[in-house]
Request: fold
Amino acid sequence: MKKLTGIVLAVAIVIGCGKSPAPAERLYEVKGNVVAVDARKPSVTLEHEDIPGLMRAMTMEFAVSDPPVLNGIVVGDSVRGRIRKEESGYVLRSLEKQAGG
Ligand SMILES: [Cu+2]
Reply:
């Protein structure tokens, strides 16, 4: 009986540690087309597909974490990137042209 209790406790601890990381650390994958690029802000406007767990498909402007993220990105590109939800809003951390897009 004592042994079983120990096993149950161990399983509970493992499940507790298996939870997804804190919301601030979560990255969301986004796919879409570039509608506008503003290298000075810097920001990029994407007509994006559904982002599971975050938002539906729409056209919106994303702040970009660093200007180099926009290197080589031009209006009309089909892209994929990663968004992080920060206190200031959604921030694009990376962006790349989709192969064959
Ligand atoms: Cu959106």
Notes: The domain at 28-97 is CATH 2.40.50.320 (OB fold (Dihydrolipoamide Acetyltransferase, E2P)). The two ends are 61 Å apart (CA to CA). Residues 34 and 75 are 5 Å apart (CA to CA). The chain is about 15% helix and 45% strand.
